[in-house]
Structures are given as structure tokens and as C-alpha cells.
Amino acid sequence: MTLKGTIMKRTITLAALALTSTLALAACGEATEPEPETTDTTTSATNTETTTAETTATATATTTEADGEISAEHNNADIMFAQMMIPHHQQAVEMSEMLLTKEDIPTEVADFAQGVIDAQGPEIDRMNAMLEAWGQQPVTGSSGMGGMDHGDMSGMSGMMTEEDMAALENAQGTEAARLYLEQMTAHHEGAVDMARDEVNDGQNPQAAALAEQVIEDQEAEIAEMEQMLQNL
């Protein structure tokens, strides 16, 4: 073989070795690239855990505000809300208990009346606890504030008069159910108005939260009563 041929052969061999080394290094680099995906997955999991924790904390704070310890922070609107809403609730409970003593009341109306008792009884207790926390006397007795009778309270939004209560007491069966639903619809509308005043003017966070709950619950019950009236 000539000297020229030998040089060309060595050159080709060296080039082939260089190419092989380059490909091997590229393959190693590709094998180590997936690591960033693990980092992304870890980051995503961490973000999800953080979001879940924040959601849980928010829900806990909302529950505490509505049902936890009562803040001493309050104003006259808060006091008025509790002092007026307690006898308002007491009358709703009285109307519902009156209906449940009657015969031939449609089951869905009787169940609704029991629901009013179950919901508004604890709210009365809650509002009395608020008054005590604010250094005020609790409102006790079925007649409500300071021994006021139904006639005295008729100026409160949605309250029934003595004549209204007598009419409900004397009615029977389906007629009693119809009268109860009509009266309770007006009663609920009055409670919603009072609760809106608290939301707008009150200062205590627990009282405001209760007022918002009253609005939500009683607006839904008004729609339910309207449907029951159509079914009678």
C-alpha cells in the first residue's frame, strides 16, 4: 500500500471514531433529560396541597364566624336585630305548634311546620347568647320583648296580629293549612327584610352571618310554601 493510501485509511478511521463518540454522548444526554418532569410533578402536587389547605382554612373560618365564640364587637343595629328577631321567631314557632295540634293537615305542610320549629328554636337560643355577650338582657317568654303581646308586635315586619292568630287557631284541616302557609309567607318576608337591615347596618360578624343565613333559608322556604299552596 502506498503512503498516501495509508494516510487516507487512518483519516477515515479517526473520523468514524469521532462520530461514534459524539453519538454516544448525545444518547447519554437524552437519558438524563426526564429529571425536570419529576420536578414539575412535585411542584404540581405541592400546589394542589396548598390550594386544598387554603380552602379548608377558609371553610373553617366561615364556620367559626357563624357558630363559634360571639365577638363583643357590636352596635345598636345588632342589638335591635336580636331583640326583634327573637319574638319574630317565637311567633313563627307558636304558629307552627298550633298547626301541628290540628287534624287532617297535609303531610307536607305538617313536615314544613316541624322544620320551622327545628330551625328557629336554635336560632332563638343563638340570638339570646349574642345579647348576653353584649351585656343585654335575653328575650324570654312566648310574648317576646318585655311582655309585648301580638298586638304590640304587629308593627314589626311580617308579624301576625291577635286577629290573625285567632283565625289560624279556629281554622281546621286544609283551610288551616292554607291560612298557615299564607301567614307564614308574609311572616318570612318580614324576617328577610329585618335580616337585610342587619346585613347592611350591623357590626357584629356573627349576627351578620346569622342574618345572611336567615335570608337564604327563608327565601327558599317562601318558594316552597308557594308551591305547597298551589298543591292544596
From TrEMBL:
Q: Where is this region: Disordered?
A: 30-70
The positions making up the signal sequence are 1-26
Q: Which InterPro entries match?
A: DUF305_CopM-like, Ferritin-like
Q: Report domain DUF305 positions.
A: 78-229
Q: Where along the chain is composition biased (Low complexity)?
A: 39-65
Instruction: Give the highest taxon in the source lineage.
Output: Bacteria
Q: Does the keyword Secreted apply?
A: no
Q: Which UniProt keywords apply?
A: Plasmid, Signal
Q: What is this protein called?
A: DUF305 domain-containing protein
List the lineage, top down. Bacteria, Bacillati, Actinomycetota, Actinomycetes, Mycobacteriales
